[in-house]
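Re: export button greyed out
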Amino acid sequence: MTGLQQFDLVIIGAGPAGMAAAREAGEAGLNTLILDEQPRAGGQIYRNIGRPILQDRSILGQDYYAGETLLAGLSHVLVTHVANATVWDVTTDNTLSFSVKGISRQVGFKKLLLATGAQERPVPFPGWTLPGVMTCGAAQILLKSSGLTPTGPLVIAGSGPLLLLIACQLIRAGVRIEAIVDTTPTSNYRRALKEIFGAIKGWRYLLKGARMLNEIRRSGVRYYKSATELTAESGSDGNLVSVSFRKGSVHHQLPCKTLLVHQGVIPNTQLGRALELEHQWDEVQQCWKPTLSENGCSSHPDIFIAGDSGGIGGAIVAEIQGRIVAKEIAYQLNQEGAAVIGIDQLRKTLDDQLAIRPFLDHLYRPLDMFLRPQGEIIVCRCEEVTAAEIRGLTQHGCVGPNQTKAFCRSGMGPCQGRQCGATVTALLADELGKSPEEVGYYHIRFPIKPVSLGELAGLSQSDA
Amino acid sequence: MAADFSFNRLPCHERAEVEITVEGQKIFALEGETVAAAVMHAGLRPTRTTPVSGSGRAPYCMMGVCFDCLMNIDGKPNTQACMTEVREGMVITVQTGAREVSGGDV
Amino acid sequence: MTESVRLNRGSSDVAVIGGGLVGLCIALGIQRQGQQVTVYDEGDIALRASRGNFGLVWVQGKGDNLPAYTRITRLSAKLWGGLAEDLTQHTGIDIQLQQRGGLFVCLSESELNSRQQMLEKMAAEHPQGYPFDVLDLQQLRELIPEIGPEVAGATWGPEDGHVNPLYLLRALVARFESLGGKLVNAGQVSNIIPKKSQFVLQSEQGEFSCNKVVLTAGLGNKSLGPMVGIDAPVFPNRGQVLIAERVKPFLNYPTGHVRQTVEGTVQCGDSKEDVGFDTGTTTDVLAQIAHRATTMFPLLKDVNLIRSWGALRIMTPDGNPVYQQSEQYPGAYLVTCHSGVTLAAAHAGPIADWIATGIADPAIDLEKFHGSRFQL
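Workaround output, generated via the alternate export path:
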């Protein structure tokens, strides 16, 4: 397409990976556009970092405010940052369509970097759709962007570092937590111990974890370990009133108005899927991730991926990957050997930072009840399709998620499969005795975020 | 709006206040925050009912991926409350079931 | 999987290759004649026009170059009620059939005039009657008050309707299996070997034998046909379809470009492109479809598009179906068309009966659908 504004590099997502990449790209002389859905840069981890809201900096802690330094990357003269920009289409002729406040624009690019981060793993369990149940990440976003803490009684349930972090942050903020219901299975500790070598190499992360557990212990919050059979229950008004679970042989029920849930994070692969990039199943992290070269190149030579959207590594890893990928892109576009200077050192730091992952991934692998739900548990939140219905369709000729989608509408709602995709694949794999890789994933269609028909019509030639 | 669902506000840096109307009630929100945050501060629950079964929902992910925070914002139905910043005078109502079609002339 | 090739994993009276709407309707109809049918289908990823189509049971304008096509289309539309009732009664799946008439909305006077001329010409070829109406904007507004001011008018076909094609497919599978039919996810059938009074099908899942074989593999028929001595001149024609979020009911009739489903979602489509086997979408075509849809129905402007896709129609040189038995290898049949929804009831009825019994109902003018018409 001619006539469109052209960029050397378009980066989608202004989190740690995107911001770090933007800085490198600007310094390497690339005309760079960075698009982000939020009104302010930072991604979810450094959400609102340019304008912190809480008076008490100790609540969110140093790790959050460390993100302030990344903002500098966006002020480089060659870098254009567009906020509130929702990318809804990318075509293979290197054209990208995005929407800002109801008006769509198109730009052209030589290279594209997807730095779209992670989303929390959908955790289907009985009652997870009730008003009052939300993710730990959601609670953190409310804290970072509005200074809000959840209404009580408050229970936190699930497994993973983010669960411990939000618990500590809320404790520091003086919020009363009724209980922490830790669903990490006992057997995970044994499996994780096998990865202790890497864990020792990543001792800083271990220390952080130990400090968080200590902080929770000192606070006196009730802590239920190895809990199973998590259920959220509603009152007559349809809102959450209690949470129940089993620990050992004892069944517990706690009154509850807010339940924060978490089972780890998974890469946000929506755009890569829509572009039909190659993806692979990661058995340890129990998620899909794009197939990438050492320097972050996807199966399409002009499309690169950095940060959690390429595989979960956390904020520091994302930042390093962002720099590596930007250096690689600059090298490809400028053909200047000088541009790759420093890449070896970055790779070494990256390896050190990733050393802890196998330990964490084994330790926080979710309970089976969350990965492969049964019976009347809702799997597709939008179309309200249950696990039993998806499983049953394997009896009617369905061997993949695109067939079940056609037969029962799971994945056809406004979230476009983001909340049910991983689960549907897992359920079909379970029923058919196949691997998730064999079962496959939804064919994700454009637009990857809803766009109004009027806005789309505005791009038509006949409108001019 | 049941006040006992209100999310509590911690001591914050100075921010301008924005007056908005949520389900007919005037409330104050902080400039720069999202509609989803504002209605949770106000204690609104549920914030929508589904078009499939009519069951209640409220914001779940706060980052634009679950689409459970869809509300009617300034007459525009099915708008993601967690992706929309509050603006002075904004009128927000619960999204009840399937949306109306109005033609966008609002 | 073991290395031993699973020979003759199954045999059946009739093998139907292709588990889409066409194949399943044929299979169901043959089954009703008491024959054992196996349907061989591909996996999760296949071209599948059955999944990508628009869901119209459409009569008006069909067969303007072949009166026999008009007749079989109208016959199918008449038989559709019975098919729907049978499926709903036995499977409990509501396939959402509505046949209250349909509209073809025209944006310009010249478009409306040429459409009117085409329908008048068709009416002249059907002395027993060919019902349609031409509505100006004022008359159209009485049917659809929300119609846009820039619309010129519409043609009305009382026999038109629509259905949920996905639930139709699901119901057909359920009904077929409940009657003892076998559905095999065989992957692509790579070869058909005609043997004495038998056919052997080869696929990655092994070999299967049958007495009769029916090719209903859509675009796959092009390569399968010659294996049984039939030329299948099919080629892809892409249509891009948009689907918008659920909205409260506003449109009581399907139109050629926009329809509202029972769930409330709004489908917009009807592009026709010659792009080979590319099922992708293009921003400019989607924008044109959105532009036309919002010109017809301005109230759709702020409705959100959720999904879009490209589906491949299975076209023939004259756009009409091919129904024929192989002269070289009797017992092998080709069934292909681009209107698997509209013709579903004809396929499950008279076409299946002809394959099962060898006797063709004169009402379907079978010889008119022979592929030899392309060799002139």
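The mean pLDDT of chain A is 95. The button fix ships in the next patch.
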